[in-house]
Structures are given as C-alpha cells and as structure tokens.
Amino acid sequence: MESTSAxxxxxTGTDRQDDAHKGRVDAAEAELASRLRLAVTRLHRRLRxxxxxxxTQSQASALASxxxxxxxxxxxxxARESVQPPSMTRIVGGLEALGHVARVTEPADRRVxxxxxxxxxIEVLERSRSLKNAFLVRQLHRLAPDERRALADLTVLLERLxxxxxx
Length: 167
Hints:
63% of the residues lie in helices and 6% in strands.
C-alpha cells in the first residue's frame, strides 16, 4: 500500500499536480489559492468600476477581445469569450447599436461576417484602458519602492500562471 503523506519537500511537481487533480491539496496551498482568488476578484471588480462607455461586462470584454483579435468572426469571438454564438450575436448587436462595432462581410466569401471596431469603439476601448491604468498607477504610487518591485515580479508569475495549460 502506497502512502500519500510523503513530506512536501520530497514530492515532485508532478506529485503535487496529481494530488490536486485527485482533490488532495496542502492546507497552505489551499489558503494561498483562496487568498489569490479573492484578491484577483476584488482587483477585477475595482477595475470594472473604472471603465468608460457605460458598457456591460460582457460588452466591455467582447470589445477588448475584438481589439486584440482584429476583426474576428462571430464564432471566433464567441469561442474567445467562452459564450454560445447566439449570446455573442446579442452582445455584438448591442455594441453595434451603440456604434462601437460594425459587421463587415468578407469580400472573398460573402457568407463570412467579421466584427470590427469603429473609430468610436476604438476611442471607448482606449478611454477605458486609460482609466483602468490610471487607477492602477495611483494605487502603485501608494506602495513603497520595494513593494512595487515585488509586484513587478509577481506580475511575471501571474502572467505565467495564466498561460499554464489546464490539462
């Protein structure tokens, strides 16, 4: 019978991944995960309060994705946003009614429709990013220089954490 109580220092990263997949998580790791989740959620909520354009969260997220993807199809945008195509059609319809996006028919294949930012949509997106960045800069200036350096290091780790494969 194999023991599952091996000292943490002697266990490999693969062992810890296997434990996490089986539902066994070290209490300290569980606490860290909980605190990280809560901090990221609260930061996200604060950032949403500093947006422009009076958009819903779904509209703001779709607008940002369109800005990143260029001119995606509705299907590609729905996949990126992890929503069903009919939901994305409604979201894009709302953005179109506000004048933030336009549907563009693909000249080579008229069955394909893409979504592109309008000049007004670009302005709203840039204004929203500017407001959020200004908020973060104000918050960063409240930290000591060594805390800002630590946060820069943490940002690299968060970017890496987000990029990890879920499988």
